[in-house]
Amino acid sequence: MIGVIGISYKTAPLEIRELFSFPKDEIVPFSELLQQETDIADLVLISTCNRTEIYFSQDKHDNQTAFELIYEAIKKFKGITDHCWQYFYHRSNAGAVRHLFEVVSGLDSLIIGEDQIIGQVKEAYITCTELALTDAVLMRLFQKSFEAGKRVRTETGIKLGITSVSSAAVEMCVNLLNGVADKSVLLVGAGETGNLALQNIHKKGVKQIGVANRTIEKAEKTAAKYNGMTISFDTFGKYLHGFDIVMIATSSATPVITAEMVKQNQLVRPGHKQVYIDLSVPRNIETSVAELENVEVLGVDDLQEIVKQTTENKKESAAKAHLILDEVVADFSEWLASRSLRPAISTITANFQAINQEELSTYRKVNTPEMQEIVDDYAQHLTQRYTRLLIKNLKNLTDNGKNIDSLKIINDLFKFD
User: Can you give the residue ranges of the Glutamyl-tRNA reductase N-terminal domain (predicted)?
Assistant: First the structure.
């Protein structure tokens, strides 16, 4: 069974999603707990600002039991006692395959055609593979998903226009401020998301740029691209008043910018209007900051108008993308189905060969070498012919592995003692 269980912007608000966010350093301890609790060891865990999803491969439990066990393991790991099942979705086999391909292609993103998601999924897959958490099925599945994502982006116009949450947030910021060419911006967190946001706002004309990051070398590298200044992460809170726009994207589990911090900066520069853009999950800006005068806070869930417009503009491209996914899903399903026949084919072949050798051993004791050779050739010919016939019938009966209802009976039938 291939399965996915997850939570996303489609099923849960930000305050719920952030409870189930997984930083990279939690993957190993969570996988250990999951194996201990469920006996499921093969997985890829994806956690972004808009989704947390666990893809897995297992044959220990029926589908529903597997989903329920993983859900309970997630809650246990996160220390959550509230009932949250209603926020989670789960899909199995072809449904899970299709869902992953849509995610990687940007069809399931808040911003249709989002570019950043394919890099995030690749990073999650590589991390879990390097940690020996993926089996052959998951490896093939994710490699196919990257093929699907590449085809969709090259064969359709889905990547035109706004293609990321950060670019949409910047667009909204530009609208709020009637342009940003004369504004200054501070970026807190120089990771992929922060760099993308800074790149987008720089294209809009912003020239005065400051960068703060826990690793100072990374901040310096980012600031240098835009001839900007570097601010120590430990002290950036003292300089908020010097910027019109503050963008933050870190992996902190708690707010980095607090209401008290912003209030203190307002005392230095009274009446100064500011826009804060929070691209983090969990949120990095205290919710009460939005209640302060002269402050506008934008988060990943505040982009509905831009999302609606982008979706409308990309309807035709999305339709073409779904046709491409039909092909790639069918290709992967064919591979997976044929793979399910391997145990039965191996059993049939091995057991017929074993019976052949066992029976021939009797004849070898009583016949001349010449007669033995004749009998050996005939027995081998007969064994191979019946093996091929049975394998052909097996493929026809199961539609080349797609119809697995009778597969267990067939496997049991050819397990000779």
Answer: 5-156
